[in-house]
Amino acid sequence: MAVTSNQQLISDTDGLFEPSVADFWSLLKPRVMSLVIFTGFAGMYVAPGALHPLVFAISLFAIAAGAGASGAINQWYDRDIDAVMTRTKTRPIPAGVMAPAEALTMGLVISALSVLLLGLAANWLAAGLLAFTIFFYAVVYTVWLKRSTPQNIVIGGAAGALPPVIGWAAVAGSLSIEPLLLFAIIFMWTPPHFWALALVKNDDYKAANIPMLPVVAGSLETRRQIVIYAVLLAPLAVVPSFIGMASVGYGVIAAIAGLLFVAMSLQLFKTGDHKHSMRLFAFSILYLFLLFLGLIIDHAVLGYLMGAA
Amino acid sequence: MERRRQPKTGAEMQQMRKKRNLVLVGVIAGLVVLFYVLTLVKVGGAA
Residue B10 is nearest to which of A3, A113, A121, comparing CB atoms? Predict the structure, then answer.
């Protein structure tokens, strides 16, 4: 450190910065973590079986911590491209506030602790799935797919789709068709969600040399693919009400929201402007939130009615 | 680009580090309590 005295002024040009608690927190990608907590909670809540409330909370905490840890490893590896993109250049490592090794250490330590904690709290199937998710996101997606194929977020989306499966496994102790359906819904939701944003941030991805679909195949092909995924996703999201996982009420809400999703995708396909891209991006978040909130409320109401009968 | 709060003097830098260390101590203490309570719940057979 260049500081030799408590009163010595630190020159801005020294390039020496001090990471704050907020910097370490941002390394965990809190916004992504909140989505993981929500979908993980939904998986845990609708799963058959019961956990002690404290074990339930600790398991959810472990899933969130694992997601955050993989985010830290991702920011360690992507520090070169993060520095190029306007969306990410203020992150702690490219901003020069944090040493890369600090981020990697934090990511690895929290990864190990979160898997251990989930294994001890819930079961080792859930812990194994969490370990696989961290590995898939940090290594398969970040190191390999992201920089090598326009299908990066399609395959890599599996990592983001696993939290409800982990949650289900934590409570039920096994897997079945229902958690795989939740996985499939998020898996099909991920491409249109990310591509809507990628269409707007195209120049950023191009500058960072990341082969996102809009960069490699162009706007029209990306918009076509968004429509295809939206058309596949909409009916898929209704399936829970056909296999006894949710009520007709959920099915109606999912169907209406799905139709809106398809309509907005078609609108984007037609116009191709940033306004409709951002509108679809924002709606896709609301859509997923509605689906999982619908499942949670549905389960709570059905449980109440069955308990009252 | 967002403006980060950065120390201007050595004293400020030390203050930031102290705050960070205290948070770290809190996190570690929290984990100890977490594992302890988890053990109590699991051994108690409530889970």
Answer: A3
